[in-house]
Amino acid sequence: MSNSRRGNYQNSYRGHARGGRNPNHRQQHQQPIIANQSAFGPQDGGFDTSGWGNYTNYYPVSQQIFNNQPRGNDARPRSNYQNNQSRQQTSNNTVLACDEYLSEEQVLKDIADKKTIRGVLRINAKQYTDAFISDPDSGSDFFIDNVRERNRALNLDEVAAQIKPKRQWKIIPEFTNLVEQCIRDLRNEKTSSAEKEGEKLTDTNVPKSSPSKRDNKRETLNTLNAQNINLSDEMIDKIPDQYFQRTVKVVFLFRRRHSMKAAGLIRKMPDNNPNFALFSPMDSRIPRLMIPIENCPENFKDRPSDYEKSLFVARIVDIPADKKFAKGELMENLGDADTVEAQ
């Protein structure tokens, strides 16, 4: 009786957990019913598993495979845990490397040719991605809009910065409409109206210093050019310079004026790397640091939550060109960050 039921179950069942149909049911029909089946043992959990042949993700547990859909000819199935770990490592370790510094000889030549400027880097305390360098000729500030193009320079460092092409300059927000009109005129080969607007500009309405607050995200000619007009350098030169804030990128470090020290908090690494702790400075203008676990308090590795409110002083040891975090070392524990003494 029991064998008959098992045979009927095996041959008549057509269900499938996902597709609604068992893809191997034809093969099952062709298989003869085995009358003398072996007794069920502990390996089967005491159950008849003969009808479970297509439920590879059901039993035994040790054979479960997640995400077992291959991608590509040579793809191998990986578990969700492995996928998450690889994605985490990629996001934590992969960064776009900074450019190598130019030689001092080349930099001095470019400064003489007005292709590069020399000045003190000022990083916006409220928006750490924004930095400025004063114009040596007393014009408006030069602008750097991302950390990578600061090229490892810190606040108040003396640097050399290469002037970018005009098409990569940032359009001053209040002149956006005028630049759009210029682009339309250039498309129609009519630049007279743009030139007249440019003549009306005086030194009084051109910003001489950096705004204290970040304006709306600034466009460049490439991003503003919605009509995808092929703007040659000659055409771009016809748009008045006063409509733009010139942009630069750091290519050389003359003098490190920053103290290379900062106060901040330590945490576990985002990727749970057991060999380092992450130091987050209170000043957002300073990069986060990887601190060797041997340099941390003795029980930090086992009880990191005990130090969530402890304020430390750390020193920057190195800022690699191709790493997400700088390298540092702890110097002093100032105590509870909420106390006046620590602050």
From TrEMBL:
Biased composition (Basic residues): 15-28
CSD2 domain segment(s): 276-342
MF terms (GO), sorted A to Z: 3'-5'-RNA exonuclease activity; metal ion binding; poly(U) RNA binding
Region (Disordered): 1-29, 65-91, 190-218
Identification of the protein by name: CSD2 domain-containing protein
Cellular localisation: Cytoplasm
Gene3D superfamilies xrefs: 2.40.50.690, 2.40.50.700
Keywords in alphabetical order: Cytoplasm, Exonuclease, Hydrolase, Magnesium, Metal-binding, Nuclease, RNA-binding
Main location: cytoplasm
Cellular-component GO terms for this entry: P-body
